[in-house]
UniProtKB/TrEMBL annotation:
Belongs to the peptidase C1 family. This is SMB domain-containing protein. The keyword Nucleus does not apply. It comes from the Eukaryota.
Length: 516
């Protein structure tokens, strides 16, 4: 990201600013500066040009045709509504999260990521940009200068100068009507007032503002960040396997037991594809476990999205049973063969490995051009009992399981601890509340003692990348079917070893006879 931080002394900057003040009628094309006036995700970058010395400006002015100067003047006038408040108004912790929170004088490495691929600064130079602009982090004044700055998000009802003007407040669109700002009241994915209450209240979990979610509506997040459709009644009533009880430890993490055989955090991006991502994630883990590492491929979520479209909704959701049917009947190639792209497009795309290719003598062809087009299959999925001990035993014996649960509006702001849904949004009114189903991998369990009382939890792997939660993972209350996390748990065996599969089936039949 370009910015104004050219290596100059304060004296040079001051001299040039004084020179600019004297040239009131001249167009200063050497220092055009655009700063974000609000946390609008549609504004992808700030255009901050470097200041030139007087000699450089004189040389360029001689080379510049008159039409070019007029063109640049038009550009300046066109973008003039954007002011220089930088990142002011975006809630969240930035400078305060740094090990050495603030930096004296100027330090171009004193940064914190914000709004995706941007950086904000926590050094004492951050508010000395051209024309009063700054690239300070939102909490710079409070954290580094000790000022009690209230990032007032109230715009609705405040006065404005030009009827018809529009601006954005987080995800809301505000219009100037009769000299007053009127906002449309859209519920946002990041709700600053709820975030503040979660920060100051006594909860078993912590929250934070995610710049990737700022400026997004709540309905948009439910639609494109989840993606599992509620199972049909016949699927909900599928037979549960019987599991022999065993002694269980207080803490268990599949990553400790199986190490590199457990695959890393996925990122579904802006596509409601948790139905596909969680299915291929569980399949990848269990294939690696059952083959003792001989198979360690990450299965392609994109193939499920693009090719398993019958009665599915692609990036707007899908049914787990149909995803498992596809992977059982046809099989899925590795991610290296059919890479994931729907997170950027919000579209499932066309199927690039059609069914007919499975019977083609030439075999499957990888869309990526890779020569390894091996397709992996799984056995029919089975439902695990909703009993806490049965889920634990299945997980510790056979590997991670797939769980579907209800995501509420506050879950998007989860940062750490043991998640328990709060009613803060409901207190604001129905328009601030939303929910949807989401599927994740459950990797383990434990007990949290940080609040002074023991809280049992499940350890889960989300599919929102490693910047969310606890490096992509989250903990949720265990043993109380919180958010329905224990109501629909699925397992499956990979087709990596027929001998081991027969052994498991014989074992399962013996268990069933014991309980008859």
């Amino acid at each position: 990201m370009d910015h104004y931080r050219k290596r100059e002394t304060r004296e040079e900057i001051g001299a040039e600013l004084r020179k600019k003040d004297k040239e009131e009628e001249d167009v200063d094309v050497g220092s055009v500066s655009l700063f974000l006036s609000s946390p609008d995700p549609n504004i992808k970058k700030r255009v901050l040009s470097k200041r030139k010395t007087v000699g450089e400006e004189e040389k360029e002015s001689k080379k510049m045709p008159p039409n070019s100067a007029l063109f640049l003047l038009a550009v300046i006038l066109f973008v003039s509504p954007i002011d220089s408040r930088g990142f002011f108004g975006i809630p969240g912790d930035y400078c305060s999260t740094r090990t050495h929170t603030c930096c004296e004088n100027r330090d171009d490495d004193c940064t914190v990521p914000i709004l995706g691929d941007h950086l904000c600064y926590c050094d004492m130079f951050c508010d000395r940009g051209p024309d009063g602009g700054n690239d300070c982090c939102p909490d710079f004044e409070a954290t580094c200068r000790g000022k009690d700055i209230q990032n007032d998000q109230r715009i609705d009802g405040e006065s404005c100068s030009m009827d018809g003007d529009t601006m954005e407040k987080n995800c809301e669109k505000c219009t100037c009507q009769n000299g007053m700002w009127k906002c449309d009241g859209t519920a946002c994915l990041i709700q600053p007032d709820i975030l503040e209450k979660l920060h100051t209240g006594r909860f078993s979990w912590t929250a934070r503002n995610y710049s990737a979610f700022w400026g997004r509506s709540l309905s948009d997040g439910i639609k494109y960040r989840l993606g599992t459709l509620f199972p049909e009644r016949s699927v909900q009533n599928m037979n549960e396997i019987l599991i022999k009880p065993r002694e269980l430890p207080e803490h268990f993490d599949a990553r400790d037991k199986w190490g590199h055989l457990i695959h890393p955090i996925a990122d579904q991006g802006d596509c409601g594809s948790s139905w596909a991502v969680s299915t291929t994630g569980i399949s990848s883990d269990r294939l690696s476990i059952i083959s003792e590492g001989r198979i360690n491929a990450s299965l392609s979520s994109q193939q499920l999205l693009s090719c398993n479209q019958h009665r599915q909704k692609g990036c707007e959701g899908g049914y787990l049973d149909r995803a498992w049917w596809y992977i059982r009947k046809l099989g899925v190639v590795g991610d290296h063969c059919y890479p994931y792209v729907s997170g950027q497009s919000r579209e499932p795309g066309h199927c690039l490995i059609p069914k007919r290719d499975y019977t083609n003598r030439q075999g499957l062809r990888c869309p990526s051009g890779s020569q390894d087009s091996t397709a992996f299959k799984m056995t029919p999925p089975y439902k695990v009992s909703s009993r806490e001990e049965d889920i634990q035993t299945e997980l510790m014996t056979n590997g991670p399981v797939q769980a579907t649960f209800v995501v509420h509006e506050d879950f998007f702001m989860y940062a750490g601890g043991v998640y328990q849904h709060s009613d803060l949004a409901a207190q604001k009114g129905a328009s601030s509340v939303a929910e949807g189903y989401h599927s994740v991998r459950v990797l383990g369990w434990g007990v949290d003692h940080s609040t002074g009382r023991p809280i049992k939890y499940w350890l889960c792997a989300n599919s929102w990348g490693t910047q969310w939660g606890e490096d992509g993972y989250f903990k949720i209350l265990r043993g109380e079917n919180h958010c329905e996390i224990e109501s629909f748990v699925i397992g499956a065996w990979g087709k990596g070893s027929k001998r081991r599969r027969r052994f498991k089936m014989r074992k399962l039949r013996r268990f069933r006879k014991m309980f008859k």
